[in-house]
């Protein structure tokens, strides 16, 4: 296992490249400058984790680089296209068709069953591909072990099942990048492990993942971890591909590294 403190993003071309990202919220008096010039490059297929203290700007960064919000300054390129130059309609299209999202809470529609909650956004993205989309969703439900609850209401399933359904929903459009903001934040330890195993599988299949987490055990699964302080990336560590065999060594290393940052 090789662990380095060198940046990894720029070397092999990036699917996502954020440069000089600043974000100021003008809704407060005085305005709150939350991101202070962040550079972050993500290579295709890479699993990047963003960590940092509460309020350091992790969620804000995730929203700014995923097209959910706009930075005040800086550029965000997806496959070389500058998202910051897109209008709102273009941005919604990119979000729907090329990005996948998982949040701490699943945000499903109560009046639809699990399968339809997953199917709906995918059909919106690919309306002419109904049969293909349905087949893909059914394969995802099976793969993540929730095909038996496909027709259940979303209030009748467990938190872990719901979060696995979120992963299916996020993957149903075959996104270029999967963004996850504290996907295990509301789960207990064993359910959290189950969801992380699912995310590691997704990453192994070649999906690019950018995840925010507070949990070092979850972060240890990533290829690299970047650390935010006061809206700036102050350090990053490359852990390399996760293997079960090295999991303890990685977790110990990461815990030490986080402690050095006062986490
Ligand atoms: N819409 C907003 N308007 C004003 N301030 C905001 C807004 N969103 C976030 N902030 C502020 O920006 C700072 C960073 O918030 P952010 O949610 O990005 O932090 P975080 O690192 O994700 O924290 P946590 O770990 O608690 O989720 C906080 O001080 C927060 O209060
Ligand atoms: Mg947050």
List the helices and strands and how they pair.
Layout: E1 16-25, E2 32-42, E3 47-52, H1 58-65, E4 73-78, E5 81-82, H2 88-98, E6 99-102, H3 114-125, H4 130-143, H5 159-171, E7 177-181, H6 189-204, E8 208-212, H7 216-219, E9 224-229, E10 232-238, H8 247-260
Parallel strand pairs: 3-8, 3-9, 6-7, 7-8
Antiparallel strand pairs: 1-2, 1-4, 4-5, 9-10
Helix pairs in contact: 3-4, 3-5, 5-6
Bound molecules: adenosine-5'-triphosphate and magnesium ion.
Kindly describe this structure:
The protein is an alpha/beta fold and 263 residues long. It has a domain at 16-99 and 177-260: Rossmann fold (3-Layer(aba) Sandwich). 35% of the residues lie in helices and 24% in strands. α6 (189-204) links the parallel β7 (177-181) and β8 (208-212). α3 (114-125) crosses α4 and α5 packs parallel to α6. The longest helix has 16 residues, at 189-204. The two termini are 24 Å apart. The relative contact order is 0.19. It binds adenosine-5'-triphosphate (ATP) and magnesium ion.
Task: Give me some keywords for this one.
263 residues, alpha/beta, globular, binds magnesium ion, 8 helices, four-stranded antiparallel beta sheet, Rossmann fold, single chain, binds adenosine-5'-triphosphate, 10 strands
């Amino acid at each position: 296992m090789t662990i380095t403190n060198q940046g990894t993003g720029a070397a092999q071309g990036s699917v996502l490249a954020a440069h000089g990202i600043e974000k100021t919220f003008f809704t407060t008096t005085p305005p709150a400058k939350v991101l202070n010039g962040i550079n972050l490059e993500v290579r295709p297929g890479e699993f990047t984790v963003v960590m940092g203290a509460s309020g350091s700007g992790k969620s804000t960064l995730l929203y700014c680089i995923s097209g959910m919000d706009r930075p005040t300054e800086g550029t965000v390129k997806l496959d070389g296209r500058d998202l910051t130059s897109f209008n709102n309609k273009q941005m919604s299209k990119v979000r729907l068709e090329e990005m996948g999202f998982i949040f701490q809470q699943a945000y499903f529609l109560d009046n639809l069953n699990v399968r339809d909650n997953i199917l709906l956004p995918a059909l919106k993205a690919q309306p002419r591909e109904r049969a293909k989309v349905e087949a893909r969703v059914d394969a995802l439900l099976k793969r993540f072990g929730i095909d038996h609850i496909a027709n259940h209401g979303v209030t009748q399933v467990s938190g872990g099942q719901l979060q696995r359904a979120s992963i299916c929903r996020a993957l149903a459009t075959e996104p270029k990048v999967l963004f996850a903001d504290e996907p295990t934040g509301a789960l207990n330890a064993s359910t959290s492990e189950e969801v992380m195993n699912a995310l590691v599988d997704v990453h192994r299949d070649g999906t690019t993942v950018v995840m925010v987490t507070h949990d070092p055990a979850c972060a240890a699964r990533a290829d690299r971890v970047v650390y935010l302080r006061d809206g700036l990336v102050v350090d990053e560590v490359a852990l390399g591909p996760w293997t079960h065999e090295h999991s303890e060594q990685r977790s110990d290393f990461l815990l030490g590294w986080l402690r050095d940052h006062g986490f």
